[in-house]
């Protein structure tokens, strides 16, 4: 089958394409999925380079933590899925030992983190709903519950997760300020629903947020950037505001802070959540996915897929993400109708 493999941790050039990788056999509790699309996620770049904070997979490995496709075989003990079912699924735990989605076929455990795709939902949207959709869902419902009338600040609002968060916050009734690293991303962020967009490569986002909120500050900050935005972000929060720090796309984690700093800045809350702690069961995954599919069907969520890469262009896809030129969600288009 066609697949990307990493034999050595390193740069994008370590993503090696082959069309002679052995197709996996599903175990008794697994299904075999012919992937239509696999998602590109920032975490993939960290896993590829060996820099993920949750640990590294054993070499060699097939990267990729989300995909959608069609079941082509089921193990003897699988009763909840059948050949022909359209499914979306998410691999990879905090220890990141599992990957396997940059491939034509994936053998996957039928008991967790896999859902059937409703007929009305496209394979692309279903795939894009996995990591970034499920993350956006728990970040806006559980890490901090966004309410009508809230003001929120979303960093990297032109990125895949940033766009997802924007739409979910707007859906919940918030006013959204987005930051972006370029004028073109800021334009996209506005088109995606941000009420205001700040180019934080050129403007002081703290001053801008204070001005926009008439010095009151925002109720919540969603920060997936890390060290470069975290400390100044605390100064954009209203009293009793919440900092949701969920990533370090800038490459560095923030320095530790004293808890008293949160009191000094207005009795702030700080949470540093991780997706897998909000998907503790198949039921929890199903509830979140059902919500997201429902939002798409009612027209309040439209995940913008900006780029489709063939699998053999995986290195270029990683370069584009690392050079910050990907706007919105990017997918690998895998199923071209051929079989292995
Ligand atoms: N905690 C969780 O549960 C969880 C789950 C999924 C993802 N995440 C994290 O969420 C963040 C966003 O993930 P994603 O997959 O959706 O990526 P993404 O949003 O598509 O891209 C990341 C964004 O970060 C910004 N950025 C700022 N400095 C950067 C740098 N030095 N290099 C690259 N990008 C930079 C870029 O926007 P600008 O160019 O506009 O600045 C880029 O659009 C990542 O940190 C990821 O690890 C966390």
From TrEMBL:
Gene Ontology molecular function, alphabetical: mRNA 3'-UTR AU-rich region binding; NADPH binding; quinone reductase (NADPH) activity; zinc ion binding
Protein name: NADPH:quinone reductase
GO cellular component term, pick one: cytosol
Keyword DNA damage on entry: no
Organism from which the protein derives: Oceanicoccus sagamiensis
Keywords associated with the record: NADP, Oxidoreductase
Protein's UniProt keywords contain Cell wall biogenesis/degradation: no
Family of the protein in this entry: Belongs to the zinc-containing alcohol dehydrogenase family. Quinone oxidoreductase subfamily.
The EC number(s) this enzyme carries: 1.6.5.5
Database matches in Pfam families: ADH_N, ADH_zinc_N
Ranges for domain Enoyl reductase (ER): 10-332
InterPro entries in UniProt: ADH-like_C, ADH-like_N, ER, GroES-like_sf, NAD(P)-bd_dom_sf, QOR-like, Quin_OxRdtase/zeta-crystal_CS
Catalysed reaction, written as an equation: 2 a quinone + NADPH + H(+) = 2 a 1,4-benzosemiquinone + NADP(+)
Gene3D superfamilies cross-referenced by the UniProt entry: Medium-chain alcohol dehydrogenases, catalytic domain, NAD(P)-binding Rossmann-like Domain
């Amino acid at each position: 089958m066609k697949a990307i493999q990493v034999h050595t941790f390193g740069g994008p050039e370590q993503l090696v394409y082959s069309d002679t990788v052995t197709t996996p056999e599903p175990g008794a509790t697994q299904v075999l999925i012919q992937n239509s699309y696999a998602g590109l996620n920032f975490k993939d770049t960290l896993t590829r380079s060996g820099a993920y904070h949750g640990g590294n997979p054993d070499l060699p490995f097939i990267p990729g933590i989300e995909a959608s496709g069609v079941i082509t075989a089921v193990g003897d003990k699988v009763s909840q899925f059948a050949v022909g079912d359209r499914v979306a699924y998410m691999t990879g735990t905090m220890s990141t030992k599992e990957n396997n989605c940059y491939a034509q076929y994936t053998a996957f455990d039928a008991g967790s983190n896999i859902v059937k795709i409703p007929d009305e939902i496209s394979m692309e949207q279903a795939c894009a709903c996995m990591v970034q959709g499920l993350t956006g869902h728990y970040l806006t419902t559980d890490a901090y519950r966004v309410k009508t009338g809230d003001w929120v600040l979303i960093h990297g609002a032109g990125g895949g997760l940033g766009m997802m968060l924007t739409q979910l916050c707007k859906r919940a009734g918030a006013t959204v300020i987005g930051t972006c690293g370029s004028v073109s991303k800021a334009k996209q962020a506005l088109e995606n629903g941000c009420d205001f967009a700040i180019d934080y490569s050129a403007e002081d986002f703290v001053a801008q947020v204070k001005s926009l909120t008439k010095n009151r500050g925002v109720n919540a900050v969603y920060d997936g950037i890390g060290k470069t935005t975290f400390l100044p972000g605390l100064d954009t929060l209203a009293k009793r505001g919440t900092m949701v720090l969920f990533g370090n796309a800038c490459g560095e984690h923030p320095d530790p802070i004293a808890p008293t700093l949160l009191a000094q800045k207005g009795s702030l809350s700080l949470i540093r959540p991780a997706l897998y702690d909000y998907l503790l069961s198949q039921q929890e995954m199903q509830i979140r996915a059902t919500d997201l599919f429902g939002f798409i069907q009612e027209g309040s969520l439209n995940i913008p897929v900006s780029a489709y890469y063939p699998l053999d262009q995986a290195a270029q896809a990683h370069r584009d993400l690392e050079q910050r030129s990907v706007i919105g969600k990017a997918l690998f288009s895998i199923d071209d109708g051929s079989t292995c």
